[in-house]
Specification:
Layout: E1 6-7, H1 15-27, E2 31-33, H2 41-50, E3 59-64, H3 71-85, E4 92-95, H4 107-123, E5 130-133, H5 137-144, E6 153-157, H6 165-173, E7 177-181, H7 193-202, H8 206-216, E8 220-221, H9 228-235, H10 244-251
Parallel strand pairs: 1-2, 2-3, 3-4, 4-5, 5-6, 6-7, 7-8
Helix pairs in contact: 1-2, 1-9, 2-3, 3-4, 7-8
This protein binds NADP nicotinamide-adenine-dinucleotide phosphate.
NADP nicotinamide-adenine-dinucleotide phosphate (NAP) binds near residues 9, 33, 183, 222 and 234.
């Protein structure tokens, strides 16, 4: 799984999503993160197919959205995502959210059911790996009781502003990779002076420092941009390393640029 993924949330379907994914693939990203809920799978898939890069070199992730609550729904949703993407398989398919608003009283049953459809698609070769997203330990504990194929990843909000230590520790204990979404705090981290201060030492920009912080913790960051030069900047992070003092300073940003959503209470 390529160690940086390209985020596409809020990249508008059509030219914006298409051109940004093309730009990302041109500069070297080989991992693209989309979702049914982003309403851009068609453009993302078209960019992947038009890129000229062999399909097997690109890692594509998409996600089951919250309106799908049953085994049958999930089965159809997987096929519909593949159709929109114009691909025969995805490299990873995630349950986007553990506790949808319309499943609050039966979310454990819902997750077990949709996961069963995902396992079937996995054995049929439509999904090369399975993961979850926004799962807290109590959601994972319930799910682990009913499944055959363990989730490979848990995609969660992780940034210096909120490191979600309990979720990360649970992931590590169960050998589930932490994929760090919003590694720039959806942009909110980037105005903080500490990131600038650290970046100046290495001739790097704040976003590059934040992405490096993620990599050095062993997370897999998913920076998003629709701007060609920022897309390129965010991938240019393999020629420097943060010191212990840098990490300490960055860790002091806790709470300064937002928090992870609470999946049991968000209205979605
Ligand atoms: N599973 C989930 O529930 C979930 C939730 C949220 C996100 N995600 C995934 O994680 C990805 C990233 O998270 P995110 O979209 O919240 O935000 P992010 O990557 O933390 O930040 C993106 C924001 O920062 C700006 N930006 C990007 N690079 C920059 C740079 N080098 N300099 C200055 N500004 C820069 C972008 O603007 P421009 O586009 O204008 O450059 C955008 O406003 C998403 O796209 C999605 O794939 C998943």
């Amino acid at each position: 799984m390529p160690v940086i993924g390209f985020g596409t949330w809020q990249a508008k379907d059509g030219e914006e999503a298409y051109e940004s994914v093309k730009a990302a693939l041109r500069v070297g990203y080989r991992h693209i993160d989309t979702a049914e809920a982003y309403h851009n799978e068609e453009s993302v898939g078209r960019a992947i197919r038009d890129s000229g890069i062999p399909r097997e070199e690109i890692f594509v992730t998409t996600k089951l959205t919250n309106t799908h609550l049953t085994y049958e729904d999930a089965k159809q949703a997987i096929d519909a995502s593949l159709k929109r993407l114009g691909l025969d398989y995805v490299d990873q398919y995630l349950i986007h959210w553990p506790n949808p608003i319309n499943a609050r009283t039966f979310y454990k049953k819902r997750n077990a059911e949709v996961y069963r459809a995902m396992e079937e698609a996995y054995f049929a070769g439509k999904i090369r790996s399975i993961g979850v997203s926004n799962f807290h330990p109590h959601h994972l504990k319930a799910l682990l009781k009913t499944i055959k194929v363990k989730p490979a990843t848990n995609q969660i909000y992780v940034s210096p502003s909120d490191t979600q230590p309990k979720v990360v520790a649970f992931n590590e204990k169960h050998n589930i990779l932490t994929v760090a979404y919003s590694p720039l705090g959806t942009g909110r981290l980037l105005g903080l002076n500490e990131l600038n201060q650290v970046g100046t030492k290495y001739n790097k920009r704040p976003a590059q420092v934040a992405i490096r912080w993620s990599l050095e913790h062993g997370y897999l960051p998913l920076p998003k941009s629709t701007n060609a030069s920022r897309i390129s900047e965010n991938f240019d992070v393999f020629d420097f390393k943060l010191s212990k003092e840098d990490i300490k300073l960055i860790n002091s940003l806790k709470g300064k640029a937002g928090k992870a959503p609470d999946p049991d209470h968000v209205i979605w």
